[in-house]
Amino acid sequence: MLLINPEKCTGCLLCVAFCSFRQERAVGPSKARISVLKWEDKGVFIPFTCLQCERPLCLEVCPVGAIARNPKTKAVEIASARCLGCKTCVMACPFGGVAFDSDRGTAVKCDLCQGQPECAKICPTGAIQFIPDDAVAEEKRRQALAKLPSLLGTAFLGRPD
Amino acid sequence: MFKYRGYAGKYLRADLTRGTTTPFDLEAGRCEKWLGGNGWGAEILFSEVPVATDPLAPANKIIFATGPINGTLMPNSGRLECISKSPLTGIYGDSNAGGFFAPEMKFAGWDMFIIEGRADHPVYLMIEDDRVEIRDARHLWGKDTIETEHLIQAENGDDQIKVACIGPAGENQVRFACIQVTPQRSLGRGGLGAVMGSKNLKAIAVRGHGTVPIAQPERFYDIAVKCHEGIRANAIYPAVSRYGTPGIVSLMNKIGRFPTRNFQSGHYEKADNINAETLREGYFVKDIACYACPIACDKIYRVREGEFAGTTVRSFEYETLGGYGASIDNDDLPSIMKATDRTDRLGMDVISAGRAISFAYELWEKGILTSEDTDGLDLTWGNYHSMLELIEKIARRDGFGATLAEGVRRAAAIIGKGSDYYAMHVKGQEIAAQDGRAQQSMGLAHATSNRGADHLKAFPTIDETGYPDEARRRYGERYLPEIADPHANKHKAFLVKDGEELGAVVDSSGNCKSGGTFVLAQIYWDEMAEAISAATGMEVDAAALKRIGERIYNLQRAYNVLHGISRLDDTLPKRLLTEPSPSMSAKGQVCRLEPMLAEYYELRGWDESGCPSEAKLLELGLEDAASRLKAAGKFASARRE
Lengths: 161, 641
Description:
The complex is a heterodimer.
Chain A lengths: L1 E3 L9 H11 L1 E2 L7 E5 L4 E5 L8 H5 L5 E3 L6 E3 L9 H5 L5 E4 L4 E4 L8 H5 L5 E3 L5 H11 L2 H4 L9
Antiparallel strand pairs in A: 1-9, 3-4, 5-6, 7-8
Chain B lengths: L9 E6 L4 E6 L2 H7 L2 H12 L12 E5 L14 E6 L6 E6 L3 H7 L4 E5 L6 E6 L2 E6 L8 H11 L6 E4 L2 H4 L7 E3 L3 E3 L4 H7 L2 E7 L4 E2 L3 H17 L3 H7 L4 H7 L21 H8 E5 L9 E5 L9 E3 L3 H6 L9 H14 L3 H16 L18 H12 L4 H5 L2 H9 L9 E2 L2 E2 L9 H9 L19 H8 L16 H18 L3 H7 L5 H12 L5 H21 L11 H5 L14 H12 L9 H6 L3 H9 L4 H5 L1
Parallel strand pairs in B: 1-6, 7-12
Antiparallel strand pairs in B: 1-2, 3-4, 3-6, 4-5, 7-8, 9-10, 9-12, 10-11, 14-15, 15-16, 17-18
């Protein structure tokens, strides 16, 4: 899954640029499957995209079965040739994970780039990481603990960053 | 569809006097000959703004331009170029800012906005994709730059609108007023904010939902990723990322290149109190980046306690620490942050404002100014309350502030009494926190820059503290060891010329000179050529790009020569030429400008007065420039007759 750590996000939009390029061979946030939500004043930036739910509502509501899970990558994908453009999936997703591309007339979403997501590859700070679902908890624990030395003193895990 | 990808394919002309906005198809020839941003602006200024035009008159034009790389995958491809005749120098002027405005222009489908005339009341331009409107801005007049941005976003119900706007200083036509660009980046130099103010143009707002097309996607992806990887593998990447430009405070201080007390010295004895480590430890909040930048040299800093508690700044740079710190002997960081916040909100160039203030402080020390001249302010070194007061007074042209608002060259003429010796400027533009005595190439760069004193046109970094490896990678063994020696004069003409031309190309491409080109030196001619070729489908190699860079630089120079600029203006303040530096490894050094300048003219194919030769102009395809210089009697042959 894509593990997102907003604290590390600098708001550079490289994830957005590379995502749109991968999907469209052109660059533009409106065509990206990932957004960086920005609160510029506070310096808060949150990259956000499809969470690849285990029980995807988009998949369940699609009337023509155009949405399916890719068994290899576990990504929930839209077969655009079959998509009616009815937008039911867009409405069903509680997170805004599915978008509607009015130029194409189909729903679009993150497909994890066939298992090698461009956003995670290009992210310069590690704010977006692509790691196996089962390893997420440990990675988060690692990140949480990495902050502790500054509280506990330097003897614990070596010099704090 | 436009012949080349990478570009949006159209530009806008707005005439504020007539209230008209007209789209034009981008011309392929304009791209082939001038590439983009900096080149387009120079050509338009040269062709459309006559020598007699006052920079603050309606007939002056202000151009906001992108390049073919803006809004793509290339590292730091978010720079915006702005070009106009400068009210500070009276000659060619340009400025360049980071942020997200330029990519948004491209996403909205525009390569360039050309604005002329003067509205009869304050207006702003609202551009959303194809829709262009001139809107009433009377309710925004008088608002600071941050308020203006927020109000425009709020009244249009979209906080992703990108805004370029002026503050009160621009409205009051302070000659070094800047234009602030979302999110609080600055088109700082040259007083282009005063040009907007003179046009009653409060802001330009842009929002786009389209894409930037790429000619050869696989090839472009490869060069972009290569440049990203190169930047991130660079040995100084972690330090530049962590500290941004304040990181060089200690470094410059060590080599006597950190102007202190208005260039009396190049070493600030209290620099440790305002250096990057102190800043990071006491005030750091967050790393923030411009579009597509892996470095994130920008930071948010906040003052948490004391008199200035709550002050939050971004784009807080080395130059600010120089101008509002060392240059007036002020080591109180919170006051420097407060001064920066006020300057950004009021909309002024921190470099020129800082230098105008340090100029006044030195005149106070020398007894040329007294409290009768300064509206009662005490300008003793280190008095930051007076500095904060002066910033307000300059922006509002209030009392003594009105004198400094003219820039140091004009202020010295108003004050008289030998004050011009302390006016640290070239061609009317104030010198940044870069002492040319400690780095000879920097002295030459300031003297030759087409927009007046400036460290960023040639951006000489190879010899700053000595980067022989990068010198070797770029130029081979030929120029070593001198080219990497800050105190040597040999080969510096070459270094400056190469930098000016590379800079002109980078500023025309939409890329960042600081990011990948000169600081984390990763993108040089070959990489630039590969990226532009792959993005646009307009095949250029390094030689073709160099020619474009040389063409742009010569056209700007020709424009300046028509405005009366000659060798007499390609100089530095006497202090840097005659007063030996008292500081560190630069101790005893003056800037030995003359031999470098002579070599520079020769390399450029300019005559001894600094006028481009007819042959050079024709070689570069600048027939118009050649005929106008000839008609004006500027060529050496005409002068001898």
